[in-house]
Specification:
One of its GO terms (biological process) is fatty acid metabolic process. With 272 residues, the chain is of the alpha/beta class. The protein has 2 domains: 199 residues, 2-enoyl-CoA Hydratase, Chain A, domain 1 (Alpha-Beta Complex), CATH 3.90.226; 48 residues, Lyase 2-enoyl-coa Hydratase, Chain  A, domain 2, CATH 1.10.12. It is built from 11 helices and 10 strands. The strands form 2 sheets. A 6-stranded mixed sheet has the order 1-2-3-5-7-10, with helices on both faces. The longest helix has 20 residues. The chain is globular and about 65 Å long. It starts with 13 loop residues before the first strand and ends in a 9-residue tail after the last helix.
């Protein structure tokens, strides 16, 4: 069992633990409510880049410490740049671009990412949950896109939110900025499961362990195809999915898995 930690000065705001093919990433900056600050974005981006190339990692769990999963962008950092000659335009463009790129890293990651939400997830923090492939929420978790209440519509969180929940649910969250309890988030499809407070990490890791027991090649193919087909017309989506399935059928693990099913035995994955 290997364990690693990623630390950026002045402290370990993002921790990484590896156990049996499952990597758990923990946002550990409760003083800033685990804001997606410059440092946190850099840490997440670097870690996701490393995970993408790490074949020993089969699933990822993303969690946090403190009462807040993530409060979204660090508004203090952003406000401080209003004194720039361009009133912060270049900085805002850069930081929002970096955040969007990090979110897309999660989607592009070959391993599924499961959010374990213990507390409040607001604005880009809610976006982070919506971006993950799966999400387990504590009964204490709350979700909100409150930008409209401070004159800053949650436009980038809207992208992930609108791809997870029905349009009218997304618009209600975006237009009202109300706090959504965990059970309502479950009904809307923003999270997969709600568990008693304190059990969300264990539940997310249990899901990750089940995924880790499957062929990583198959999971990688399936995750990529899922997101690729979402933006296509129905006929194009079927054409793409059919082509993907043909290639998958020719993979060694598909041959092994089908053979094992017919022989009524457990498959032995080679991840190829």
């Amino acid at each position: 069992m290997a364990m690693n930690a990623l630390a950026l000065a002045p402290g370990p705001i993002l921790r990484r633990d590896d156990r049996d093919g499952v990597t758990t990433l923990t946002l550990d900056d409760p003083a800033s409510r685990n804001a997606l600050s410059e440092a946190m974005l850099a840490a997440l981006s670097a870690t996701f880049a490393a995970l993408a190339a790490d074949r020993s990692v089969r699933a990822v769990v993303l969690t946090a410490v403190g009462p807040c999963f993530s409060s979204g962008h660090n508004l203090k950092e952003m406000t401080a740049r209003r004194v720039d000659p361009d009133r912060g335009r270049a900085y805002f463009t850069d930081i929002l671009g970096r955040c969007s790129a990090m979110m897309q890293q999660i989607v592009a990651l070959p391993q599924p990412v499961i959010a374990a939400v213990q507390g409040l997830a607001t604005a880009a923090g809610c976006q982070l949950v919506a971006t993950c492939d799966l999400a387990v929420a504590s009964t204490a978790a709350r979700f909100c896109t409150p930008g409209v209440n401070i004159g800053l519509f949650c436009s980038t969180p809207m992208v992930a939110l609108s791809r997870n929940v029905a349009p009218k649910h997304a618009m209600e969250m975006l237009l009202l900025g109300d706090m959504i309890p965990a059970e309502e988030a479950l009904r809307m499809g923003l999270v997969n499961r709600v568990v008693p407070a304190g059990e969300e990490l264990e539940a997310a890791q249990a899901l990750a362990a089940r995924i880790a027991a499957k062929s990583t090649l198959t999971v990688k193919i399936g995750k990529r195809a899922f997101y690729d087909q979402m933006g296509l017309r129905l006929s194009d989506a079927y054409d793409h999915a059919s082509a993907v399935m043909v290639e998958n059928m020719l993979a060694r693990d598909a041959e092994e898995g089908i053979g094992a099913t017919l022989a009524k035995r457990q498959p032995r994955w080679e991840d190829r």
